[in-house]
Amino acid sequence: MILSGLSALYFGKKAEDTLPVAVLLSMILAFAAGITGVISHILEILLLAYLFGDILFILLLRHRPCRDRCVCKDPDGQAQGKNGRGETEADGNILKAFANTYLTPGLFLFFVTSVLICFIYRNMQVLNWDDLNYWATFPRNMQAIDGVPAGALSSSLFRDYLPIIQYSYYLGFKIMGRFSEPLMFDVNNILMLLFLLPFFKRKEGQATAAYLLSLCFGILFPYLCMRQMLYCLGVDGILTCLFAYGVICVYEKTHDLFYYIRLLAVCTVLCLTKSTGVFPAVIIMLLMLINEDLWQRLKEIREKRQRGERKTLVMADILRLLYMAVTVVIPFLALLSWKLFCSLKGNHSYLGDRLQGNLSGARDTGIPSYALQVIRLYVNSFFTFHLNDGALGISPALILLLFLIVAALYLKKCGKKKRDIWSLAVILTGFLLFLLMLLYVYLFIFDEWEALSLSSYDRYITVYAGAMLYMALYGLCRMEGVFTKHFGKIAAVAILIVSAMSINYPLIYNNWNTAAFEEHNRSSLEDKAEAEEEFREWPGNAYRFGSRILIVDSEENNSKRLFARYAAVPQVVEFYALSGEDPAAGLMSFCEERHFEYIYFRRDLNESRAEELGLLSDMATEGAVYGGRLYTITAGPALSPAT
């Protein structure tokens, strides 16, 4: 908070601008600590970084004129304050100016909303398939080993997924001193709200009606198009808000050093959040280059050098080009560093292997027999699918229509500038390419059942469609003159009412009310509690990091395996179901092929597979084999109780 406040004073901003950047840079620092193996000391590293940053900005502020320290600038780079001269109410007093950067209605409402959201999510537990295989398993693994799980220490099914949001969970665990599932949901929601701060910030001279509408949209936005935030930890909602936030940052035309730092932080975190985040990062970079008019700038530099103008003027333009180059290059270098880390540590997943096989030609990518059926479902969902699963929910097609209407209004009011037309073309072309890319994933990466059910369609499509909704609503609230006429006010209120009616209130109630949450998820909660209790008492649990452990159960592919894998963290486990005429021989053959070191027999085998366990008893070195016990595989092979 102190660092973002001091940087706000130095750059002439408000805390609504600098707070998200401070958080993004902290996340990037945590990522760097993770791949270098020192993340267990992340609290100390961040404290040192904040202390260094505070001292740096204090020194920078002391060497600037007193009046300049207290200047706040609007998005067009013009000084705000008394009589437009740049003085603030602080009149040169740094402490008062510092307080003014934080004492804003927008920031106050942001903190209040964050507390309310955390209260609503106090009941949340990890129950979703993706969460149990990665989004919650990875940070739980980190907490257990106090580091980044890699290779044989990684319990997650998707070991090469980008981890920067999970590092944020881990940081929260370090502060709390324990693992917490509701905390992970809180982090997700607070990050989304953080990137929605432009809705909370009041622009100089903004009409009260427009600002109130902006606040309402900022609070309601996640519930308009993100059903996933009501049931899982998927980071697609964070990608959505961060993507739109980055686009808005491009068009807050300050063009100072802070402008490039902010875009660098946004694009880097996008690239490190999820592999699909690279695409919106590229869109933001293209918009930045268009907004900077790169080719015209290069032409001006060449003309200045030909005219023999002062080197200081030419160097200023070259420095600006250098800022742009760094903003483009650093995010991809960060992504490359994670790919290199995964390669060195042996982190991979079947989805990553499939994509690599497709791109290299090593995997057959012929058009599947169900392609036409998937395409029909895909096109139909674009027009009819409600992204928040509400009765009056918003579809991607409706979002596109609203975006085009707001864009047309903007071009009409602000003039058809070449730069704005090119920017609109990039966003719309990007949306088309994103849709084609998502269709490719369904047809050639996912399994048939995932493609035919358009698995997780709401999460994937929201990354771009939701960002366009964010841009449209934000543009509507910030467009000058829209609310000066009665028709504009009526239209704005109508949009707000329709938006509020489209929210899926039953799902929100299920999260808020403890009894409703437990009743709605009764079966899953029971299976999870059973698994947690079963694996909590493993003998010598803390000393088996990196060992290959086989869990033997009674059924294949049942949901209970998900909870068993999650409960067994930090142990790395695989599963086997007893079957066949000679279950003992089949089991031992499987163990020899995969080189397991331990076998755990689930408790339910005592009743459902008692006969098979009796056959295994011939290989036990001490008595019979029972469910609910962990055994070591020794030479022979033989089973001896693990101690």
Detailed description of the structure:
There is one protein chain. The chain is mainly alpha-helical and 643 residues long. Helices cover 65% and strands 5% of the residues. The chain has 31 helices and seven strands. Strands 4-3-5-6-7 form a five-stranded mixed β-sheet, covered by helices on one side. Strands 1-2 form a two-stranded antiparallel ribbon. Strand 3, helix 28 (560-568) and strand 4 (572-577) form a beta-alpha-beta unit. Helix 12 packs antiparallel against helix 23 (457-478). The chain is globular. It starts with a helix and ends with a strand.
Radius of gyration: 28 Å
Q: Count every beta strand, where a strand is a DSSP E run of 2 or more residues.
A: 7
Give the helix level as a range of percent. Answer: 55-70%
Shape annotation: globular
**What characterizes the major β-sheet?**
5 strands, mixed
How many DSSP H or I helices?
Answer: 31
The end-to-end distance, rounded to whole angstroms, is 49 Å
Poorly predicted tracts of residues: 65-91
